[in-house]
Amino acid sequence: MFITVPRCPQDPWQTRCLFATIPLLLYFFVRNYLRNAANTSESYFKVVPLKEDFDSTKQMASHPQYLESFLRTQHYILYMDGPLPVHYRHYIAIMAAARHHCRYLVSLHSAQFLLADGDPLWLQGLEAAPLRLQHLDHINKVLAHQPWLTARSHIQALLKTGEQCWSLAELVQAVVLLAHCHSLCSFVFGSGSDSDTTPTPRVHHGTPPAYCLCDAANGNTALSFIFTQGPFLVYISLPHGPSFVTCFLFLKCISVSDVEEEDEAMFSADPSRFVTDPEFGYQEFARREEDHFQVFRVQDYSWEDHGFSLVNRLYSDIGHLLDERFRNVASLPFPHSPDLKRAIWNYIHCIYGIRYDDYDYGEVNRLLERGLKLYIKAVACYPDSSKTPLCPLSWAPVKASDKVHVNLLVMEARLQAELLYALRAITQYMIA
């Protein structure tokens, strides 16, 4: 299935007519397609309100192989076969993004929630959601800020709460989704995509833009683009052999009489509606006085030897997709030494209480200057644009060309850290 965007005519009047037609047709086509075939494996479409998803994905596109694995994993988690219904998945994503007050992701998944026929009343706040989702709030809070607190008792409580209990397969999918969205908040924050003060460029002369970015996955990001006020980004991915062909079309947000009020209301989604205990946040693991919070030793429980097999058994194929992401980010070309990349990864795990017995942590202090360490900690542990940052991100001693790579390392290292804590707790529950 292909959608071709014709070359713009030279005549301005013809251009306006062309752009007036394409958004209208695609708006209704994509809307109906999402409602009726969101789970199809042949092709899939996502409607994304606001421009920032393209901003973040455009940065990832400088590493096309990684981008492909990221998109494949995200699509599988949100839309493909799994025990949770699609609208539940988007609501869980809202809960995860809200912990970091990521307005962009909250708005994005609010839109997707409605398109998946979710009850708009749930968007009034967490207390309006079913009890099963409310019960997930505690593990969401812990994984987002202090994942080392994740315990077998949390898993047991979710699996044994009467009529509102979760199945083990459902819980594993929910945990993967929470960790994915928490870590994505870090990337969005590090890339500056969630800044409330970022102006939205307008289109000159009111011409709605439309173009095809089919070569984004090939690393060609030298493209000019403009935005309308309140655009819809329609993301189209078509499997092509072993890889994905990705296209992006920007559509002007049109006013039509049959657009439900809830579809418009979600743009003002307030993350605080979905947050309990807002004061709960990251604390320095290394400075905690409680002796019972022991260091997580990778030699005792690792992704390769334990986490991968468990998650793949309880949530089919997701282990392979996640492992591909970890491998791709590890193999990204880095202008600096491989030792620096490993130091960044191990430092992120260290601030989350995870240690490698075979690594000399003196390398972290030797290779990472203080400004870079502050930047990494801010993006990994405090990705909240509504609060004063640990350090101004613009002060980070990182070149613009290197920042994307560092942000990807932060996102993937944080994702793996959360998964390790959650999967270890699930393992402890299963063998108890």
TrEMBL record:
Keyword Cytoplasm: yes
One Gene Ontology cellular component: nucleus
GO-annotated biological processes: cellular response to L-leucine; cellular response to leucine starvation; negative regulation of TORC1 signaling; positive regulation of macroautophagy; regulation of response to reactive oxygen species
Listed SUPFAM superfamilies: AhpD-like (SSF69118)
Record bears the keyword Oxidoreductase: yes
First-listed, main subcellular location of the protein, grouped into a coarse class: cytoplasm
Protein's recorded name: Si:zfos-80g12.1
